[in-house]
Amino acid sequence: MSSVAPARNHGPLGDAARRFLEGPPKKLLIGDKWLDARSGKTFGAINPATEDVIGRAAEGDAADVDAAVAAARRAFECKDWAGMDPHMRGSYLLKIADLVERNAEELAQLETLNNGTPISFTRATMPDVAKVFRYYAGWPTKLYGETNPSDGRIFNFTLREPLGVCGQIIPWNGPLSMAAWKIAPALACGNTIVLKPAEQTPLTAIRLGEFVLEAGVPPGVVNIVTGFGETAGAAIAAHPGIDKVAFTGSTDVGRLILKASAGNLKRVTLELGGKSPNIVFADADIEKALAASVGGFCFLSGQVCVAGTRVFVQQEIYDEFVEKLAAQAAQFPVGDPFDAKSLMGPLVSREQFDRVSAYFDVGQRDGAQLKTGGSRLGDKGYFVKPTVFSGVRNDMRIAREEIFGPVAALIPFKDEDDAIFQGNDTQYGLAAAVWTHDVSRAHRVGRALKAGTVWVNTYMNVDPISPFGGYKQSGIGRELGVHSIDSYTQIKSLFIDLAP
């Protein structure tokens, strides 16, 4: 597509979404009150499809984080939440899930408006958000300890207990999903929370906070501080009153958070960047692999940590695959995210637009061939064309660095060993994919790839029962599944003398 006419102002919003956007700037949730930032400052939320300000939110900073941590600490120490009947704690998570489901269209519209994800995707996401809360609603009754073998004079057992106050910092590329991934397990385990959404996308996190209060969750259990990473985010990472920080975002920021956590040795889980290898063997279902590969680097405009931006193609089919992938990418439906036909919307911000656009020149300077895209789309909004480079070497910057945009680097490989070697030749290890009809090869390559998730003949499947996280510099720890429970609990050993 050669042009785009994005929606103006608020797009075709329903009454509920419009009502939410009306009125004064959105406030911080501290305790059970919505409060202005102590500085009185606010910041604008931008519609990336139109570059218009669609609302304002309180600009929280260290003083507001202090207040939120104090509220969370009171809620944790009073045991109203951590000491609650676990069946009851699970019921609150179910209530939140019901509210998300009941207001799914409003949430989808707000998410599309604020980060540019096509409405077809945000509508499909809302049942998954509810599913995360429902999955974790079953966990409060299953936080088992153990009895350990000992002699008859001692009773030795363990208890699994919540960590305390959890700081949670979420990204802009999937605001509501990432909020659910962090809030739900923390609540299930009895923790209290200080959540900071990305400054680019504060709206749906605030709306979720309203649902938390509507569900009846006790005051101070969930606190939400909107603001900037350099101020509010840094204050959460370094705060001595926070027992654990969970962060999703770039590897560079993850390093800063890890350093800041050293003050009180708080627990840290990090879900960071990726440069996922998407490996296509000559015996694969080529048409299926092509469709998934285009979606793999265009989904969310490439602004997803598991994007399949390194496409490795076996030499025998490389030239054919390049031409077909470029042709499909050139026809990929990009446009107004409120148009049901659009499969790709804008990048989230001017900063992201400038960053991604710079790589168009970087790739060509390094010797890669631009097959399609490589430029802006339209003259309003942060739209870029899906971009495909061929003749890429794995040592080029477009193959090494996380671009976080719809840019694919196509790299040839000789055989299975070469695919594994090149696929693993990266600082990242979040996800990977393998396309082949050979079941034995699928198992061999899947085992050999150093990635937290490997898909075979599919791409981007996620389920709350399955752990998600990365190898190497793609992160520390796991989200979702049973393994996330370890990240939000600690183990206590008890020895009781039974001697008369």
Describe the structure.
The chain is of the alpha/beta class. It folds into 2 domains: 15-272 and 475-492, Aldehyde Dehydrogenase, Chain A, domain 1, CATH 3.40.605; 277-464, Aldehyde Dehydrogenase, Chain A, domain 2, CATH 3.40.309.10. The chain is 37% helix and 19% strand. The chain has 16 helices and 20 strands. It has helices at residues 15-21, 62-77, 86-102, 104-115, 119-137, 175-188, 203-214, 229-238, 251-260, 286-298, 318-330, 350-365, 397-400, 416-424, 439-448, 483-487; strands at residues 28-30, 33-35, 42-47, 52-58, 147-148, 154-162, 165-169, 192-196, 222-224, 244-248, 267-271, 277-280, 310-314, 369-372, 387-390, 407-413, 431-435, 453-456, 475-476, 489-497. The strands form 5 sheets. A 7-stranded mixed beta sheet has the order 14-15-16-13-12-17-18, with helices on both faces. Strand 1 and strand 2 (33-35) form a beta hairpin. The longest helix has 19 residues, at 119-137. Mean pLDDT is 96; it is low at 1-9.
Multimeric organization: single chain
**Overall structural domain count:** 2
The count of helical stretches stands at 16
Q: Major sheet: size, sense and barrel closure? A: 7 strands, mixed
User: What share of residues are in beta strands?
Assistant: 15-25%
The CATH level-2 architecture of the largest domain is identified as: 3-Layer(aba) Sandwich
CATH first level of the largest domain: which class? Alpha Beta
